[in-house]
Amino acid sequence: MDNYPSANSKGFDLYPLVYKYEPPREWHERRPDRTYSASIVICREGIAPSAESGRVFLVPGVQWTDLGMAKRAAVQHGTDIIDGLVKGESTAGL
After folding, report:
1. Counting Cβ atoms within 10 Å, is residue 7 exposed (0-12), middle (13-18) or buried (19+)?
2. Mean pLDDT of the 41-63 span
3. pLDDT grade, residue 30 (50/70/90)?
4. Mean pLDDT of the chain
């Protein structure tokens, strides 16, 4: 994870997490060279993320072939959570 947030929104810092996605497959299936999944860590602005001060949200059901696209999507998902646009996800208690 980066030492500095990639974005800020409404008093929250956003830290994207991008990691290699390896779907379960049969040996004979073709595998893409690189596929990435993403999550976003949201914490209060100016407070270092930790188990007590931050929360991790998975960006569901999408994989990307480009790191930059995965990071941008994670930040957008975090912004949507903060804005209350993602059903069932909330920053309450942070």
Report:
1. middle
2. 91
3. low
4. 88
Contact indicator for 75, 40 with CB cutoff of 8 Å: yes
Tokens of 31: 């595998």
Phi–psi pair at 80, nearest 5 degrees: -65, -40
Helix (H, G, I), strand (E, B) or coil at 55: strand
Helix (H, G, I), strand (E, B) or coil at 25: coil
pLDDT of amino acid 74: 96
Residue of 39 and 29 predicted with greater confidence: 39
Rounded Cα distance between 10 and 42, Å, is 11
- Quote the distance between the C-alpha of residue 44 and its chain's center: 16
Q: How does DSSP classify residue 23?
A: -
DSSP bridge partners of 16? 40
What number of other Cβ atoms are within 10 A of residue 78's Cβ?
A: 29
